[in-house]
Amino acid sequence: MTEEVRTNEEYAYLDRGGFSSEKHKIELRGLPKFYGIAELKKLMNQKLGLSVSKIKRQKFGNHWLYACFQNDEERDKAITALNGYEWKGKKLIAEIAKPAPDPLVKRKQECKVNDKNPKRQKTEIDETKCQEERLKDAVIPYWKYPYEEQLTLKTKEIKQVLMKFDNELWKIDKQKRSKIEDNRKLYDGLSFELKPIERSPIIEGYRNKCEFTVGIDEETKKPTVGFRLGCYWAGSVAVAPVQVLKHIPENMKKAVLVFQEFIRKSELPPYSPVDYSGYWKCLTVRQSSHNGDIMLIIAMDPQILSADEREKVKEEINSYFTSEESCGITSVYVHFVAKRRAGEEPAKPIHVLGATHITDTILGRQFRISPEAFFQINTAGAEILYQKAIDLSRVNDNSILIDVCCGTGTIGLCFAKHCGQVLGLELIEKAVEDARANALLNNIENCEFYAGKAETTLHAVLARASADDVIAVVDPPRAGLHMSAITTLRNNKKVKRLIYISCSPASVTKNFVDLSRASSKTLHGAPFIPICAVPVDMFPHTKHVELIVLFEREQEPSNEVADIVKENTEEEKNLDPEVKTDNQEDIIDTLCIDI
């Protein structure tokens, strides 16, 4: 095969007719050292009147990135506006970017080369392993380790994350270095206590929600509902069955097989990410640990199906799941997921059959779960997590709890009987509706939930907290809280203690640092001091672990340290909410629920 033919094959996807962000891409260079993706989008879309659809930040280097547009006209307009534009003291360079080669085709070409030359380096996916082993490695990478060893590995990883945080504390506050060093002698190298990891009460079949992909099994060549063996960019679109995975409940596996039989009988083929053809994309299964009820959310690309043809699809789904063995299936939705244009609202799941919700129980509280509601995926583990948070908070009848990122109210409602009042705030209005409905379901009257953006809602909610003992609990998305929310919490002196819950501790260490850094002109409230951390294993057989950190407000600085505050202000010039936030591409401008 000539190099020209190989290259043509790698870029053939651009001519298949479907939209690809690679078609209308620019390279933007000369960016300033400190900036946020949200800030850059605001510059491009609002100030310059552009319509950027996607920004692709590079793993290495903050000074350049790719920006994608819907068509050539929008791309050319962006180049004209951005090339030579001065932003934060830097002159930007904008040029047309070459599309990336199709990774799937590229990998196949590499495999052919490797077959001819075995000494060539292997590709990312190790095909010397059987399909079952590759699936386990991809989905539950700790499957080979005994559970006690998994806990040891996770404890070690959490300690490394906390050591990084602790070292940052030592760097940014010279006045506390002596105390930090003394505490490290007490707490095995940390300046605060790391408590033993909490075990998951259930280590097999613990998941109450899974999102399965519809694709082709590379062994049977049949349409299959399962998990991908690797991502497209690693050169894989194969899907493997999930019956061998120990973290999925048996009834959920049966429900997957029932749907799999449906798509194999269907005249509509599975969706293909290679050429964007086909219909059936994925299946989300939610299962109640309380009564075993199962909800299915079937996602499909409608392609060019007419309204009547979509109705026919819904009727076929209804008929099939009415006649087939239920396996506990009590609720079915269909979700028509078409390619959205910039600014277009996503489609919502459509109820097809059975109940509109399922219910589950945590710490004696019942919660209704809708298709898109956030709910901890390990119900038994969530009881451990929330009870530990309650214990650490030391709430009492006179306390007011501020539930930041409250979602459907699970944490706040579990706290409700232990404190005087719960005030929850949440960006997503539908989640707030669910939270209020859950309060009614449990006859709880001391909880109020508010919808709105962080920069406005958090301040207003805190103003309603009139008690002397105010505790905040935050359980944000994977990437953490935006700096504006951190600043509001720091600057409100009512908040005496803060419980931070994170499913991705390595992503939120900057939040920890900003809560703890010394007072300044921007952060004029006294800092929060880390007291202890508790890992909770919510995800057996995987690398993930939940972490709770208890912070307590330091006593207000005396007049003698006013000069230190001024000095810290000078060191904090780059602490702009939209500039200084790490992982800004993933961190939202306001608080939200799902992780």
UniProtKB/TrEMBL annotation:
Q: Where are the transmembrane segments?
A: none
Q: Which SUPFAM superfamilies match?
A: RNA-binding domain, RBD, S-adenosyl-L-methionine-dependent methyltransferases
Annotated Pfam families:
tRNA_U5-meth_tr
Enzyme Commission code = 2.1.1.35
UniProt keyword terms in alphabetical order: Methyltransferase, S-adenosyl-L-methionine, Transferase
Q: Where is the active site?
A: 503 (nucleophile), 503
Q: Name one GO molecular function term.
A: tRNA (uracil(54)-C5)-methyltransferase activity, S-adenosyl methionine-dependent
Q: Name one GO biological process term.
A: RNA processing
Question: Which EC class, in a word?
Answer: transferase
| Annotated CDD domains | AdoMet_MTases
Q: Which residues bind S-adenosyl-L-methionine?
A: 376, 426, 475
Which reaction(s) are listed as its catalytic activity? uridine(54) in tRNA + S-adenosyl-L-methionine = 5-methyluridine(54) in tRNA + S-adenosyl-L-homocysteine + H(+)
- What family does the Swiss-Prot or TrEMBL record give for this protein? Belongs to the class I-like SAM-binding methyltransferase superfamily. RNA M5U methyltransferase family.
Q: What is this protein called?
A: tRNA (uracil(54)-C(5))-methyltransferase
Q: What organism is recorded for this protein?
A: Pieris brassicae (White butterfly)
- Biological classification of the source: Eukaryota, Metazoa, Ecdysozoa, Arthropoda, Hexapoda
